[in-house]
Amino acid sequence: MWVGLVLALEVSSLPFLGQAAKRELRLATTTSTENSGLLDVLLPPFEEGYGVKVKVIAVGTGAAIRIAKDGNADIILVHARNLEDEFIAQGYGTKRYQVMHNDFVIVGPAEDVAKIESEKDVLRTLKTIATNKAGFVSRGDNSGTHIKETSLWEISGIKPEESWYLQSGSGMASTLRIANEKRAYTLSDRGTYLYLQKELDLVILCEGDGRLFNSYGVIPVSP
Predict the structure, then answer these.
(1) Same domain assignment for residues 146 and 69
(2) What CATH number should be reported for the domain holding residue 180?
(3) What range(s) does the PBP domain occupy (predicted)?
(4) What is the structure's pLDDT at 80?
(5) Does 209 lie in the same domain as 116?
(6) What pLDDT digit, counting tens, does each position of 205-221 carry?
(7) Strand 202-206 relative to strand 97-109: parallel, antiparallel, unpaired?
(8) CB of 48 within 8 A of CB of 77?
(9) Which of 172, 170, 161 is nearest to 38 (CA)?
(10) Half-sphere exposure of 61 (CA within 13 A, CB side)
(11) What's the helix, strand, coil split of the chain in %, to 5?
């Protein structure tokens, strides 16, 4: 994870290295990455070692890619492989570096009104939530997490209904807090959930399905 991220940062910052004064490297990434606390650990040694200040722009994957396409980022760290491949194919990125992975989990209130505790099949979990019309909070922001969630609903053959399906239009941390407040279910990356776990009354109810694998890539933006 560290080697891949540093390698991509080095490639992106080559024009800045060796030049006088502090230079800024703009990293467009996801709110889930920022919320996990990972960048607080990884970036300071890089900044100190290379004399490059990294400006973090934390948004959803879709927004991060748009920012880079508009020329407002030097590197992206995102998690939606189809969009990443398209970004490179269109000439916006130079190369994708696989840097890390975690997984998604479905979390919900401890009382688990939909009765899905310890379920391993994410599609059955979503069907159970829909059948019980249990509250579900979606990020609704075209992030990598939102893209994954909508693909799972599509595969399951279910179209969520407004009566029980809420779109927060915000990042992972805010979405988790809204789900917590409403005693609802949501799909989260594991890292952000664990980072916020102590302040939430939500528990992991579905995990371990291979379809919940979550891969992150770093892509330097083409000059």
Answers:
(1) no
(2) 3.40.190.10
(3) 26-222
(4) 87
(5) yes
(6) 999 999 999 888 889 89
(7) antiparallel
(8) no
(9) 172
(10) 28
(11) 45, 25, 30
Q: In sequence order, what DSSP letters do the residues of 32-99 get, joined into one string? A: HHHHTTHHHHHHHHHHHHHTEEEEEEEE-HHHHHHHHHTT--SEEEE--HHHHHHHHHTTSBS--EEE
Whether residue 108 is found in the same domain as residue 85: no
* Ramachandran class of 37: left when φ > 0, alpha when ψ lies in -120 to 50, beta otherwise: left
Q: Does residue 205 sit in helix, strand or coil?
A: strand
Residue 95: give the domain boundaries.
2-101+215-220
Helix/strand/coil for 176: helix
The residue type found at 124 is: R
Give the DSSP letter of residue 132. Answer: T
Name beta bridge partners: 136.
165, 185
Q: Is 111 helix (H, G, I), strand (E, B) or coil?
A: coil
Instruction: Count the domains in the chain.
Output: 2
pLDDT, tens digit, 9 for 90 and up, residues 8-22: 666 666 654 554 444
Same-domain status, 66 and 135: no
- Co-location of 118 and 83 in the same domain: no
Predicted pLDDT at 16: 47
What is the structure's pLDDT at 183?
A: 97
Compute the half-sphere exposure of residue 57: CA atoms within 13 Å on the CB side of its CA. 18
**Cα distances (angstroms) measured from residue 119 to each of 23, 42, 139, 158:** 49, 34, 22, 18
At 71-110, the pLDDT tens digits run 999 999 998 888 999 999 999 999 898 888 889 999 999 9
Assess contact for 46 and 180: CB atoms under 8 A. Answer: no
